[in-house]
Design a protein that fits this description.
- The protein is mostly helical.
- It has two domains: 77 residues, no CATH class; 98 residues, no CATH class.
- The chain has eight helices and no strands.
- The longest helix has 33 residues.
- The mean pLDDT is 86.
């Protein structure tokens, strides 16, 4: 395979990245709600495995009570504004903002991501999505590997074996192509 310049490798990465994104979109569209369902299940498992499920249930109950109080307060403010403006109450806008401590949010998101991968791995389309994500994450390395000289490819193979890493399908293909020698 001829050697590519860095801009050419970046261009190939972007092009292949785009193809992977399109395939993932197709998989996701073929079962609407899959990622939302998996995400919700992963969040529940994250809360459970962190020992936060009961505390989250308490927060949810408090949030419901608080929400009702805020809705009552907002309706009262809306009614007052409607009276002052002489407008119907349903034409007066309202809004609500809530938040969670960033550290707790981060912990839940990290654990949710791990559980999401486990749940995706239990689904046929989910497995395909995971494979595509992995290819995408390793795409730049794969392109460099495909254009590397054989001694560097061998070194890369030895290193991945030493680290216990598994090659992606594209990396295996790139290595097989490199074994045939450079193409014209």
């Amino acid at each position: 395979m001829p050697s590519l310049l860095v801009p050419e490798k970046e261009d190939w990465k972007e092009r292949l990245d785009h193809k992977i994104d399109k395939k993932m979109e197709t998989l996701i569209a073929s079962e609407p709600g899959l990622l939302a369902r998996i995400g919700q299940q992963a969040r529940q498992q994250a809360l459970q495995s962190l020992g936060l499920a009961q505390l989250q249930a308490e927060l949810d109950a408090l949030a419901a009570q608080k929400g009702e109080l805020q809705r009552q307060e907002q309706r009262t403010h809306q009614a007052m504004l409607a009276v002052v403006r002489r407008d119907p109450i349903n034409e007066v806008a309202d809004g609500y903002l809530g938040s969670q401590h960033p550290e707790v949010s981060r912990a839940i998101q990290q654990r949710q991501a791990a559980h999401e991968e486990d749940l995706l791995a239990q689904d046929e389309r989910g497995l395909a999505i995971l494979r595509l994500r992995r290819e995408k994450e390793n795409l730049l390395d794969t392109i460099w590997l495909a254009t590397a000289p054989p001694p560097l490819q061998e070194l890369w193979k030895k290193l991945t074996e030493l680290l216990g890493e598994e090659r992606t399908q594209l990396q295996t293909t790139a290595l097989a192509s490199g074994a045939k020698g450079p193409s014209v």
